[in-house]
Amino acid sequence: MTFKPLALIAAMAIGIAATPAVAEYPDRQIKLIVPFSAGGGTDLNARTVAQFLEKELGEPVVVVNRPGAGGEIGLSELASSDPDGYTIGIINTPGIITIPIEREAQFSLESFDFLAAMAEDPGTINVLGSSDIGSIEDLVAAAKEKPGRVTVATQGAGSAGHINTLLLEQAAGIDLLPIPFDGSSAGRNALLSGEIMATTANLGEALTFSEGTDWRILGVMADEASPMASDVPTFASAGYPVIGGSLRGIGAPAGLPDEVREKLEDALKKVSDDPEYLKIAKQANLPARFIPSDRYVSILEGLDKSFHELWETTPWNQ
């Protein structure tokens, strides 16, 4: 038997004691950045996810609003944060793609690790229920009869509503008149007051706006009808394959450790399968749809390609 000198044993004991324990992720509060003001559809979506993600991870998930510049301020903060899993954020299309196309931004798609999409809120075009425009076909016919005179409210240059309008113009060969407003609610009010002829909104917003009002959703900009409004046709069914709206997902700064990424992805999948989460989302007109990371990235890359092509022919900031 070989005996180690007492000095060596003591040194080994000190070394073991001095080695810090590696904490298992997460062991403290997580920040979830929302690049828009409180109270909107994206914010509501983020807070609903945060509530259930907190349950899955066992640590507080605190929503922090960082509005401004169409989402650029919050997305820039997320991109520049430490990739340790303690700062994540909700990411919207089209802004995550269109902002770097239209101006020099502090982020690109490569700045983020995309964990999962949690909601797909397709774009819609809406009119008054009493309007002579009663269908997608009527809208196209009116625009062809009066080029540039059919007014459509959007949420400003480069917004989802504005880009959706441009995509429809391109697909149908028509000329609409986009009118910028400060958000979907302002567009709703302008429509109800008769100030404009039609307004864009994501489906969740349109369903909320339609409650108790003279409102008609003409169509959804999706590849298939939404379970939330199965009686509303797609633009594709009318011959105009326009896909647009807001795909909302959760992302983090690029470079997450594999084990942290896997834990977040797994937790988000569990959130999306939680019956209580789905119940709350439905009550709030939030179109929940889980899309795993690889498919989510593929969709974003496809949108990036189509938005670059649109920018070449129809720059939306002019």
TrEMBL record:
Task: Please state what the protein is called.
Answer: Tripartite tricarboxylate transporter substrate binding protein
Q: Which family does it belong to?
A: Belongs to the UPF0065 (bug) family.
Superkingdom of source: Bacteria
* Listed PANTHER family: BLR1237 PROTEIN, TRICARBOXYLATE-BINDING PROTEIN
Show which residues constitute the signal peptide.
1-23
Q: Name the species this protein comes from.
A: Nitratireductor kimnyeongensis
Q: Which UniProt keywords apply?
A: Signal
